[in-house]
Design brief:
526 residues; alpha/beta; 7-stranded mixed sheet; 5-stranded mixed sheet; 17 helices; globular
């Protein structure tokens, strides 16, 4: 069964659409088009009938008919004879290898090295936490001789690391044993194991947030699954988020010295559209749902506990396995409280990693689930590999046991970087609308025009590399958005923002560039 949008839901998304600046049908069509481009109306969603929408808006059916006709002409609606109009994106030529969106269609080339002199804004990742990582490996080497008489294969992972991960979940209010943990080579590896186990059949539906993490979308497509995107609502402008404030005051970061962010879109107040997620789960009944409730990538939002309870309940009602990516959970910049999703149901599958909190080069992640599921994941894992490197896992055990040691300094530096980036955007890119992130490593920006891909194409010419907004969506959405990591030091962030200003000036001076530019260069994203 396909997803449909009720008249009431669309009216709520439209807001104050009729401002009298153009004929009513054109204003209605323009706002619906922007909702599709922003991802607030997901792709392949059936819009309300002309009659029902006209009644809900209190306007003539002729106006809605003309607006829908305009959207079809522009390529944003498609419909067959006797069927409801469905949201879509205008075709921009042949797709990548694999054909239609449900098939294999990888949207980036992994592992591309960054040329010298280029600042990489496609990666939201930090350098190693220095001495802490070094000490962990030194300790691991002293423990290694005791394991050398064994074969070295362990599909579940070495005991000390599994015990350390289990103890951390237990301390967070989720009682866990080592038998409920499988160690992986990073969170991406963990997701691929879960997909192979739970959604192995071609065409299996997987619910995702929209926008979502690009590498997760690629993994879902590569597994032959069909992503079912559910749009996240637009961030609320300024004001108070769901947490009611942050340490140091509403206008400042937790350190108390950051820039005032009144007037900025705030991630907390935008939240998740639980009504839309519940509807999609009920109508589509996907086998699996992949969500990032802890400092969502790319928006930086933190899902409140009330929404977590609703989502867990809705997933259980639809028979959907809820897979929760907690990779960014430790990067809580403003000290907001939240409960791990697994605390609300033993059926939740949790993914974690040391890549964002400590160093991506560790390639150490995990799956936390029920024991029966862990046994299934271990069996599926052996079709991919027979276990992870032992030294890295021994080092990982030390890092998990001392998880908080590097975090205060890292979080302090990240808060400074976030504040710096937001201030630079406000100063040099005043038409941009950055969403204030509760945590994580990046700022999600709404652009003044749908120029994300064009900026990504021009970026290397001005000394930076970008991941275009459509990489975070399905079917070409988010052309008016860009993710900007604040993982670089402040002086490099200033250089990057000035480069973005230069690229935008080029586009404004020569609008024809947007029509003549080639596709953006392939970029690895993290």
């Amino acid at each position: 069964m396909s997803v449909s949008l009720t008249p009431g839901s669309l009216v709520r998304l439209l807001g104050e659409w009729n401002v009298g600046a153009a004929p009513a049908y054109r204003e209605l069509g323009d706002v619906v088009r922007l909702l599709i481009l922003d991802g607030r109306v997901a792709l392949d969603v059936a819009l309300p009938s002309e009659r029902s929408l006209a009644a809900a808006l209190g306007i003539s059916r002729t106006t809605v008919t003309a607006a829908y006709a305009l959207l079809r002409e522009q390529g944003f609606l498609s419909s067959g004879q006797g069927s409801r109009s469905r949201s879509c994106i205008p075709s921009q030529g042949p797709l990548h290898a694999g054909g239609h969106d449900g098939a294999l269609r990888l949207s980036g080339a992994p592992g591309l090295a960054v040329p010298d002199g280029i600042l990489d804004l496609a990666y939201a990742s930090l350098p190693a936490s220095g001495e802490v990582v070094h000490r962990a490996f030194a300790a691991a080497l002293t423990e290694l001789p005791a394991l050398l008489p064994g074969f070295g294969y362990d599909a579940l992972g070495v005991g000390p690391l599994r015990e350390a991960i289990a103890a951390r979940y237990t301390a967070a209010g989720v009682p866990t044993t080592a038998a409920q943990v499988l160690v992986t080579s990073g969170a991406q590896h963990a997701l691929n194991i879960v997909l192979r186990t739970l959604a192995g059949r071609s065409g299996t539906k997987v619910l995702v947030e929209h926008p979502s993490y690009p590498n997760a979308l690629d993994a879902i497509r590569a597994a032959g699954c069909r992503p079912v995107p559910v749009a996240m609502p637009a961030a609320a402008p300024g004001g108070t988020g769901h947490n009611g404030g942050v340490p140091g005051g509403r206008g400042h970061s937790a350190g108390g010295n950051g820039p005032a962010h009144n007037g900025l879109a705030h991630s907390g107040a935008g939240g998740w559209d639980l009504e839309a997620m519940e509807t999609a789960l009920l109508q589509q009944r996907p086998a699996m749902a992949y969500v990032v409730p802890d400092f969502h990538n790319p928006t930086g939002r933190l899902m409140p506990d009330s929404q977590r309870r609703r989502l867990v309940k809705a997933a259980a009602a639809s028979g959907t396995v809820l897979v929760v990516d907690e990779t960014l959970r430790e990067l809580n910049l403003d000290g907001a409280a939240s409960t791990p999703m697994a605390a609300f149901s033993p059926a939740v599958v949790s993914l974690g990693s040391l890549s964002k909190s400590h160093w991506a080069g560790l390639r150490t992640g995990w799956i936390r689930a029920s024991e029966p599921l862990i046994r299934r994941f271990a069996a599926a894992r052996t079709t991919l590999d027979l276990g992870g490197p032992v030294v890295e896992q021994l080092a990982g055990a030390h890092l998990v046991n001392a998880m908080t040691e590097p975090l205060p300094d890292r979080l302090s530096a990240l808060r400074e970087n976030r504040d710096t980036l937001v201030e630079l955007i406000r100063e040099h890119l005043p038409g941009w609308e950055p969403e204030w992130p509760d945590g994580g490593l990046s700022v999600w920006c709404r652009l003044p025009a749908p120029i994300s891909t064009a900026l990504a194409v021009l970026a290397p010419d001005v000394g930076i590399r970008l991941a275009a907004g459509p990489r975070f969506g399905v079917g070409g959405a988010f052309e008016q958005y860009l993710r900007l990591p604040f993982t670089l030091p402040p002086e490099q962030l200033e250089t990057a923002v000035l480069a973005l200003r230069s690229a935008q000036d080029r586009l404004e001076a020569s609008p024809q560039l947007r029509r003549n530019l080639s596709s953006p260069p392939a970029a690895a994203i993290a």
